[in-house]
Amino acid sequence: MTRSVDVAVIGLGAAGSATALSLARRGLRVAGFDRHTPPHPWGSTHGRSRVIREAYYESPVYVPLVQRARDLWLQLERDSGRPLLRVTGGLMLGPPDGSLIAGSRHSAEIHGLPFECLEGSELRRRFPIFRPGPDTVGLYEPRAGFLDPEAAVEAALTLARAAGAELWFETLVRGWETRGDGLLLTTSAGPIHAGRAVLAVGPWLGEWPPHQKRPPEIERQVMLWFTPCANRSQFSAEVAPVFIWEWSRGRLFYGIPDHGTGFKVARHHEGVLTAPDTVDRTVGEVEVAELRELLARCIPDANGSLRESAVCLYTNTPDRHFTVGLHPAEPRVVLLSPCSGHGFKFASVLGEVAADLATGVTPGFDLAAFDPRRAMA
Ligand SMILES: Cc1cc2nc3c(=O)[nH]c(=O)nc-3n(C[C@H](O)[C@H](O)[C@H](O)COP(=O)(O)OP(=O)(O)OC[C@H]3O[C@@H](n4cnc5c(N)ncnc54)[C@H](O)[C@@H]3O)c2cc1C
């Protein structure tokens, strides 16, 4: 006889692990599937750190979500006994009228968030590792920091299993068809009947029935870790903030202080388009040299020996907002794709939101910007 569950979660990375936990804690019969053994380095959730920030330059609509996400990360920390969130403060750098500074300020003002504007000698005195030019100002938010993505996925899955979820690793879900009042999923471990499903397959989303006019674009991203060549103590997470820098109009790079693994830096976007199973995972010398040029100009003391590098994947929508909502062609399926390069911080709350959607509960957030049906040119 075919196994039957209330909800199947397809993909147990950042978003799927949080969803499985939220559903299992509601007392539902949950089966989670992953083609790999999460946490793993083949999708979007590896590299030991992810920025969390509140004064959201992309849109104020994200602020209530990140506030709830933060509470849930702290709860996951308590429940799992694992450190997940490190508060370092966050420094946004760029032209005062650029999208990063103006957008962060707008969100901070609308939501009454604490922030400081810094410029000139005061900016250099407070954060001596950075070398901003005369047209660059800073916006500092004290509650920002970074999360540990691998530990978070592991913690959520361990607690989901403890709450009764069945977790199937190294198990591919190939598709679904409508069966009775639910779905029949085809998996590499056999068929499974699920009342509802949450599709949280990260960069593999393009393999599934389309939900928008344009499929998501999968973008290769390179992360680099450096050993600073001078003033090393100034780069540690005890002292340095996470940062994002609009170094040229609309072009961003970011970094995370050294917490034992080196000073991490990466560009935000500007990667080549690819696919998760064929992406080139070797970091080229030119890519390192390009980032070194940025460091030489903006953070020269960071430009020491390269300690490590890794390739990761963004799943981009055309407007760079997430995809969260019911599948337009199959309302028994919840689409959950919080990426475009900024989704990890929200995984905890969006797991809760997806669990709401899968159980007919109206989520308490404005999700219009993430509607899978939104018109795309
Ligand atoms: C380099 C880089 C830096 C980033 N920095 C930040 C940051 O600082 N802050 C931030 O908030 N966000 C950041 N992000 C974005 C964030 O990491 C992603 O938004 C988030 O990790 C996406 O999680 P996900 O659950 O959608 O995907 P994933 O975690 O990749 O999970 C998808 C899972 O689905 C599984 N799967 C796929 N297909 C199937 C199938 N058919 N059957 C079964 N299982 C399947 C995969 O194996 C995988 O485990 C960054 C991303 C990258 C790449």
Compose a concise summary of this entry:
The protein is α+β, with helices and mostly antiparallel strands. It contains seven helices and 20 strands.
Describe, in plain words, how this protein is organized in 3D.
The protein has 377 residues and is α+β, with helices and mostly antiparallel strands. The protein folds into 2 domains: 157 residues, 3-Layer(bba) Sandwich (FAD/NAD(P)-binding domain), CATH 3.50.50; 153 residues, 2-Layer Sandwich (D-Amino Acid Oxidase, Chain A, domain 2). Helix content is 24%, strand content 31%. The chain contains 7 helices and 20 strands. Strands 5, 6, 7, 13, 14, 15, 16, 17 and 18 form a 9-stranded mixed β-sheet that branches. Strands 1, 2, 9, 10, 11, 12, 19 and 20 form an 8-stranded mixed β-sheet that branches. A 3-stranded antiparallel β-sheet has the order 3-8-4, covered by helices on one side. Helix 1 packs parallel to helix 5 and helix 2 packs across helix 5. It is globular and about 70 Å long. The model has no long low-confidence stretch (mean pLDDT 97). The structure holds flavin-adenine dinucleotide (FAD). The site of flavin-adenine dinucleotide (FAD) has 39 residues, from helix 1, strand 3, strand 13 and strand 18.
